[in-house]
Every structure is written in structure tokens, then in C-alpha cells.
Automatic annotation (TrEMBL):
Ranges where the ABC transporter domain occurs: 2-236
Keyword Transmembrane helix: no
Protein name: ABC-type quaternary amine transporter
A UniProt-annotated Pfam family: ABC_tran
Example of a GO MF term: ATP hydrolysis activity
EC number, as in UniProt: 7.6.2.9
EC class name: translocase
Family: Belongs to the ABC transporter superfamily.
Keywords: ATP-binding, Nucleotide-binding, Transport
Length: 361
């Protein structure tokens, strides 16, 4: 558990980076610090591992003030991931990951064995260990950074905007990977971002900071979206916070319909309805528009891109995304294995939302 008790950081020029912060990060959870630039979120994070010391107040880990610990020893027991990974360019991936175990006195063989295990844990093949950072993509470098932070099996992981330098598709994959790892490893994670979507997706609790290092609201993401503490929080999470809030609304009562399907390589007569193209027997690949014709057998090249897929049983935001991104206006529903299960419409999603609202009132 990490506690901030009346923590203030004031610099000699009078700038207050953090102002009387009181906050508790529960063990085994992901807590996200979010806010505009210059609001003190990174300064607060760095006071946990003593990269910055507070001017007043206390930062405690399991009840012990971090200022009683030697900074170097403290940091070896806390994983730290930064933007663009911060890897040593002259060391191989394997040796980058083994850095902290070696500093902690592990033998080289033991440290490298642990590093190889962690590459697999973060989804990288073993042969990546022989490469240098410059030979990796941005997303791969970030995975190596996470592996390095986990190498000595620290109970706490600090992550300072670790995914902000990669493209949106890679970023979403890294977020998924972090959630998967947390499900396996159960670390206490403090994550800094300026992106409210990333905050509500990852955080079990979210701390919203305002300019001047003031904590504006600290709560579960669904609560922040539904009941912002003040105008600042409301403006920061955005006018579309109701849409973001769909990430926390289950799909109970959402009707799932069916459409005509055709297998790639199979014959298909022109239809006046949208037809879903499947590969490997049951995996959605795209759509055939009404009246579509082609000589011979259908191929994936004949299909229109199908938009996002909605996994059955997950929150309603995914269902609405799938319906709105589909050229057919039909969101494709799949099961956990990615097999076609049916379709939904945006209208049906909105009806479920409205019925929930009426029930709540």
C-alpha cells in the first residue's frame, strides 16, 4: 500500500508542483494519475521512489516513510517504466532486462534466465533477447521496458506515460497486455497519463489532478464519469463522458440478431441484404454490399472492411463502437474465440441504455 499524507512539493522559485496531497493506493490495484500538463501527477509518482523528495508531508509504503530508505536500494525494489522505454542502446534486450537483478547481486546466468522468462511473459519471442533496442519497434521496446521493470519481481510498479509515444493501435495492444499481466502478477501499479480514455480503461481508481498540483477527485472511473466532483473534472473528462461511461455498463438485455453469411471461397448469389464474409468457417472478415456480384468464387478482396468486433458479454461501449464503425450499420458480435455469434444495431444498444436510465430513476 502507498500513502500520500499532506504531501507538498514546492520549489525554490515558489512554484508549487504538488499541494497537500492525501491519497491511498491500495495494494494489488492499478491506480491512474491523470490531468493536464504541469498538474503534478509525474512529480507525485516520482516521490514514491525518491527521484523527488517532498517539501512537506510523508510518502509511505506499507506504513514506512520512504525517506528512511536508501534511494538506490528503494528503487531496486520498485519497478519503473518511462516513455520510450529508456533502454540502454549498447546492451542487448536480454541484458537490458537483467539490469536490476545484476545490480541486486544475482549471478549473470540467473539474471539472464529470469530475463528470458520475462520476455515470454510480456509476449516477446526468445530470439528478441539477442537484438539491440534500435532493432525493435516502439511497441516492442515498451514491452522490454515493462519486462525490465518486473525483473526483480518488485511489489510496486511505477509507469510514467509509458505508452504515449506509440501509435493508437499499438497503444491499445500494450494496454491489453498490461491488464493481462496485472491479472497474473497482482502488482501495485501507479500509472501516469494525460489521456482520460487510457485512465478509465486501465484504472481501478483514478486520481484527477488540476493545475497547481491539487487533487480534484479520486474515485472509481465509473463514478468520475457519472458524477464529476466539479466543473474542472467535468470539462477534463469531456462532454462525451456518457459515451465513455458505457465501458462500465454490462450488455444484459441486448438483443443479438443474425444475418446471411458466406464463406470465403464459396459460391454466393446476389442478395438485397448485407452479407457477412467468414473465413476459417466462422471468423468474420468483412461485408458484401447488397447486390454485390463477382465472377467465380468470393475472396477476401471482394469484401468491404467490417469495422470493429464486439465480444459477447463485454460492456456496451464495444457494441456501440462495432455498430457505428460497420458499413452495414450492424455490429458483428463474436465469442471469446473470435467466432461469429450474431449482430447488433446502434438503436438496440441505445434502447438498452435508455431502459437502464429509466430503471435507475
Amino acid at each position: 500500500m502507498i500513502e500520500f499524507r499532506d504531501v507538498t512539493k514546492k520549489y525554490p522559485d515558489g512554484t508549487v508542483a504538488v499541494d497537500e496531497l492525501n491519497l491511498t493506493v491500495e495494494a494489488g490495484t492499478i491506480t491512474v494519475f491523470v490531468g493536464p500538463s504541469g498538474c503534478g501527477k509525474t512529480t507525485s509518482l516520482r516521490m514514491v521512489n525518491r527521484m523527488i523528495d517532498p517539501s512537506a508531508g510523508e510518502v509511505l509504503i506499507d506504513g514506512e516513510d520512504v525517506r528512511k530508505s536508501d534511494p538506490a536500494l528503494l528503487r531496486r525494489g520498485i519497478g519503473y517504466v518511462i516513455q520510450q522505454a529508456g533502454l540502454f542502446p549498447h546492451r542487448t534486450v536480454l541484458d537490458n532486462v537483467a539490469t536490476v537483478p545484476l545490480l541486486s547481486g544475482w549471478t549473470k546466468a540467473k539474471a539472464r534466465t529470469r530475463a528470458a522468462e520475462l520476455l515470454e511473459t510480456v509476449g516477446l519471442p526468445a530470439e528478441m533477447g539477442k537484438r539491440f533496442p534500435a532493432q525493435l519497434s516502439g511497441g516492442q521496446q515498451q514491452r522490454v521496458g515493462v519486462a525490465r521493470a518486473l525483473a526483480a519481481d518488485p511489489p510496486i510498479l511505477l509507469m510514467d506515460e509509458p505508452f504515449s509515444a506509440v501509435d493508437p493501435v499499438v497503444r491499445e495492444g500494450l494496454q491489453d497486455e498490461l491488464l493481462r499481466l496485472q491479472g497474473e502478477l497482482d502488482k501495485t501499479i501507479v500509472f501516469v497519463t494525460h489521456d482520460i480514455d487510457e485512465a478509465v480503461r486501465l484504472g481501478e481508481k483514478v486520481a484527477v489532478f488540476r493545475q497547481g498540483g491539487v487533487l480534484a477527485q479520486y474515485d472509481a472511473p465509473a463514478e468520475i464519469l457519472a458524477r464529476p466532483a466539479d466543473d474542472f473534472v467535468s470539462d477534463f473528462v469531456g462532454r462525451d463522458r456518457g459515451y465513455r461511461g458505457l465501458s462500465f455498463v454490462d450488455n444484459e438485455g441486448l438483443p443479438i440478431g443474425q444475418v446471411d453469411t458466406v464463406l470465403v471461397g464459396g459460391a454466393h448469389s446476389p442478395s438485397q441484404q448485407w452479407t457477412l464474409v467468414l473465413v476459417d468457417g466462422d471468423k468474420p472478415r468483412g461485408w458484401l454490399a447488397p447486390g454485390s456480384t463477382v465472377d467465380g468464387e468470393w475472396t477476401t478482396a471482394d469484401a468491404l472492411a467490417g469495422g470493429s468486433l464486439y465480444t459477447r458479454g463485454t460492456p456496451l461501449r464495444g457494441a456501440l463502437d462495432a455498430a457505428l464503425s460497420s458499413p452495414a450499420g450492424l455490429g458483428v458480435v463474436v465469442d471469446d474465440a473470435g467466432a461469429y455469434a450474431g449482430v447488433v444495431t446502434a438503436e438496440e444498444v441505445l434502447k438498452v441504455i435508455e431502459s437502464r436510465r429509466e430503471t435507475a430513476e
